[in-house]
Amino acid sequence: MPIDALSSVFLKPVLNWMSDESGDPMGSKPRRGIIPVMITKTIPSFHFASWNPLMNFLPFIVSVLIAGVTICSPVSAELTTYTQNFERMTTADSDDDTGNPNDIAADGWTGFAANWLGEPADRTQNDKAPLFSYGTFPAPNGGPGFSGIADNASQDGQGTGPQGARHLNIYNDYNEVKAHGSNKFWLDAIVFRDNPVAVGDSGKTWDFKFDYKANAAKGGTLSPGGKSKTFAFVKVLKSSDNSYGTMAAFEFETTSASKSDWASHTIRIPIRKEFEGELLQFGFRSEAQNGEPSGVLYDNISFRKAVEEPTPGKK
After folding, report:
1. Which of 207, 280, 289, 298 lies 20 to 30 Å (CA to CA) from residue 201?
2. Strand blocks (E) in the chain
3. 148, part of any domain
């Protein structure tokens, strides 16, 4: 193939990509990716009115492009381990905003809510869509909705133990007047962390472990009551096609948690091949309506690869 023809076939798309519409090489419009950055370090800055001089660079450019493709290839990794005991966070009462509003959000927690017709017993989310939803947004520390850091001073008879002095308090969003102004609607309020599933995670098992206890503040009147329900969960969403449909969901109900004694639970999730490249979420949620309480405390939270138990008879 003649050299001019080769330049048209190979270099023209590359050079057009590197130049803005005015012909100014590497114009002010940002270019995304690793490969062009590498090229600009090897080619002098000049106008590309004539492409023939660049033929001297052709073998090297080809090698750089090949190397760039290799560099840009996905790298195997793992889901991200997370542990938290909340001892360093500022406390906040669930009735006001006295705490640092950034503590929980700065730790990576997010809020979301959906309003449904009926009552929490009508858990038919798979059969219909919510009336409306809102979020996502940084999870708050205190106030009438979603989350806050509670300390032992607010808990009747609560002493310091393995759970320390501060805990994550999860409750419904009582700002949402449609659900909390009648018994015709109910609100699913969710506080969670994102954790993308990486290439190479399949075949492994991860554990979401936590301690939990009902909120004993104000004589226990803030713990789940009426028709309220509370849960811990792990789920995987189909993020690769932007549908965010649920691929897998694991839940543990904490509605009947004790007001005085802590308990522990582990949700175990096997990572399947189809989860790679999708979005895993873990966290807590509450279903409530008409102002009914829903507060549950969580502590010593961890998300990590499961420890394999030895097979009996094998060393």
Report:
1. 298
2. 82-84, 110-117, 132-138, 145-151, 166-173, 185-196, 205-214, 229-238, 245-253, 263-270, 279-288, 296-305
3. yes
Q: Is 9 helix (H, G, I), strand (E, B) or coil?
A: helix
pLDDT in tens, 60-105: 333 333 334 333 334 346 899 999 999 999 987 544 455 567 899 9
Any alpha helices (H) in the chain, and if so which ranges?
A: 3-6, 12-18, 35-40, 58-72, 103-106, 217-220
CA Rg, the chain, in Å?
Answer: 27
| Parallel, antiparallel or unpaired: strands 296-305 and 166-173 | antiparallel
- List, for residues 263-290, the tens digit of each pLDDT value: 999 999 999 999 999 999 999 999 999 9
Strand-pairing partners, residue 304, are: 207
Backbone φ and ψ for 55, nearest 5 degrees, come out as: -65, -25
Give residue 37's domain range.
3-72
Using DSSP, state whether 70 is helix, strand or coil.
helix
Same domain, 226 and 245: yes
